[in-house]
Amino acid sequence: MAFTLRINGTERSVDVEPDTPLLWVLREQIGLTGTKYGCGIAQCGACTVHIDGVATRSCAMPVSAITPEQQITTIEGLSPDGSHPVQKAWLALDVPQCGYCQAGMIMAAAALLQQNRSPTDDDISTEITNICRCGTYNRVRAAIKQAAANGGSVQSG
Amino acid sequence: MTIVQSVSRRGFIVSAAAAIGGLSLGFRVPFAGDALAAEAVPEINAWVVIQPDETVVIRIARSEMGQGTLTGLAQLVAEELGCDWSRVTTEYPTPGENVARDRVWGNFSTGGSRGIRESQDYVRKGGAAAREMLVAAAAAEWQVAPADCAVDKGVISHAASGRSTTFGKVATAAAQLTPPAEVRLKDPKDWTIAGKPLPRLDTVDKLTGKQVYGADLVRPGMLNAAIKACPVFGGKVRSFDAAAVAGMPGVRKVVQVDDTAVAVVADTWWRAKTALDALPVVWDEGPNTGVSSASIGEMLTAGLDADDAFIGNQVGDARQAIAGAAQTGATKTVTGVYAYPFQNHATMEPMNATAVWTPERCEVWVPTQNGEASLAAAADAAELPVRQCEVYKIHLGGGFGRRGNFQDYVRQAVRIAKQIPGTPVKLLWSREEDMLHGAYHPTTQCRLTGVLDADGTVTALHLRISGQSILAAVRPEGMQNGMDPVVFQGLVGSGAEGVIGYTIPHLLVDHAMRNPPVPPGFWRGVNLNQNAVYLECFIDELAHAAGQDPLAFRRKLMANHPKHLAVLEAAAQGIGWGSPAPEGRHRGLAQIMGFGSYVAAAAEISVTDGRLRIHRIVAATDPGHAVNPAQIERQVEGSFVYGLSASLYGECTVKGGRMEQENFDTYTVLRMDEMPAVETIILPSCGFWGGVGEPTIAVAAPAVLNAIFAATGKRIRTLPLVNHDLKSA
């Protein structure tokens, strides 16, 4: 079945089963592999993308639930060159370890800052529920605060 | 982060911000037919290639899985080489090249926190030899003595004549020279690149989605495979109905992988998985369907009293001292039985490997902690000689021990690819497959018996461990007359892997091996994790039984163990031990030695209405030499995420011979809301090289458990904590 999706500002057509999760459309049909598979049940957040600016776990979002008008932003489209304030803060604080969860973390953080320009520790704890097994949480928290201080609410996508 | 300068390292001051900028020039994903940098430009030696544009390519034999080894090893080579750090990039030599070149890069295995501590000597010599050859080439051109030349940031200069050149200009000539027979390494106090808190070399691509992990790999014409092995340990495939899913979208083939597993191969992984979920499979569940956590627990409990124990450490006669104490009654005897569960590594990137097989050759792309083990597994499964196989290593989305010794996913990928000759097949495990077929943290129990004399000093201690041996299952060649020496990590009398930090007149540490039919594995921290819980919680029990402060009590036992004591004192001081904790908060301590390093932690917690909150952790580490303090800090912080996940929630339970937890909804791990502040103190006392990726995990649980006792009077002896009610009785 054909679906039209607006991904990182570009209209794309895909022919997949309607229940195919957006994650696998992005990774296997579009070739955007920055968005990761971690659990498949919206638990870990490695697959986080933005749909109309809202952090969404794409592994549990069937492609058929997305309209052609909705703006999908992936890590590849967050900024053209890694210059989003969240990415810059991540670089400045050298946040990633293995890095596998980090695209999801960055997307979740960018969406948080879009809604809340200066999140408190409690806001961050409530909103960033992504799993990192290497243990970058404290640096993620510090980087979100740094991005907030540097105007992290730049519109994405 | 605080770095405490030692006498031999004057002026060692570090800020969290980097002193020197590191520029990542990218890390290539190697493909078949790709040349290592050396084939375009001659290498200076196995470790160093200098390109005409002054790019310095440093070869890294160990695997990067987030622990920072890639950057640390590059720093050690670059330090001796004297190159410009901003020009450094890295590449992995392949396991096949290592075999072909008589293992010139040494061991590829990346586990046991050994990446740096076991290769630092030869990688530094590689850098130093390359520097000497570059200098010799310049000196020969100038007809001056090499000893009169100086090297700074990739520039070679001769002061007397005022001449200078660069590494890139003399690299080709240097590559022709005979390597020096001997090189002198720098004194670490003179380091300018190593020892500094440099940013990682592999960060940039991880921020933009560019970093390619094994799960992301795409090869021309590649198909995707999803796999399901019998969920019951020891079970096999009896039959499956391939025809039932053959017509599903994208499906190309349904294959039996081996005795235990079936796979669906399709154009995309999602379609392969969808068809696999629909595939009717009949399992022969084998002999273990009656095995449960309870039956395993009974088996281990029986081992606590068994006679068939291997002795790991013995001083004096603890049995007699304990028996004598029971008779005289003039002393106090304390006993506690502890237990530690199965746990899954739960790397964020599930197991995967991509393979292509023809009758002549087999190639595998895989995130692996041990490229040579991957190569051996590939050759074995391919039924081809090793020289006709090759493995290309890819950065790992987490390893934690799962991707080292165990190459099950490589064997599977090759066996699937072998059934579709010439077509690359990427095998990716689902999270459920990953949870059901782990190489689990071994389960053990421990009964500790201690005797206190009238002054409250420990005169005898017996730790009887009962339970699983990792080596017996996965590396039997490491066994010593039936004994698994690794079981005693942290509790032995000598060696780098973990000397007990207490002097006790009568000490016995022994192990009744009880191996349930659940595959164990090396799990970040290995056996130090449970041994530190057993030892450090029980020492806390003894301190309370003696009516003494846990720090003062330990000090009396640690006079002969100054390095153990130094980290403990540092952590205690950092948390404010001895001064009152803030209202409602309570503190606990733990220390241990393992993986060559000395570590301690102090936790400050509160328990409100039965709910634990960990406010603060202060951790101290003495790794001997601190190659990159910033990366050590991250490893220490990360150790608390891993260690606290394990102690708060980590448990895989067995029912019907299989694991009950299949995903993160039932296998809970620590998230941001529960992560405490961590303050890291690094005390590099020099003179030895210790690991940093694992040891601190072991002190996370006991520091918190001891603080919980201080807060509630409840002594938690079985993990995870989530199974206990912390509400006041």
Number of continuous helical runs of chain B: 18
Main beta sheet strand tally, sense and closure of chain B: 7 strands, mixed
- Number of distinct beta strands of chain B: 27
Name of the top-level CATH class of the largest domain in chain B: Alpha Beta
Structure summary, number of beta strands of chain A: 5
Mean pLDDT of chain A: 96
Strands ordered across the widest β-sheet of chain B = 10-11-8-18-15-16-17
- Structural domain tally of chain B: 3
Distance between the termini of chain B: 39 Å
Strand order of the largest sheet of chain A: 2-1-5-3-4
- The helix content of chain A, as a percent range, equals 25-40%
Strand percentage of chain B: 15-25%
Q: So how many helices of chain A? A: 5
Distance between the termini of chain A: 26 Å
Helicity of chain B, as a percent range: 25-40%
What summary fits the major beta sheet of chain A? 5 strands, mixed
Can you give the mean pLDDT of chain B? 94
CATH topology-level name of the largest domain in chain A: Ubiquitin-like (UB roll)
Radius of gyration of chain A: 15 Å
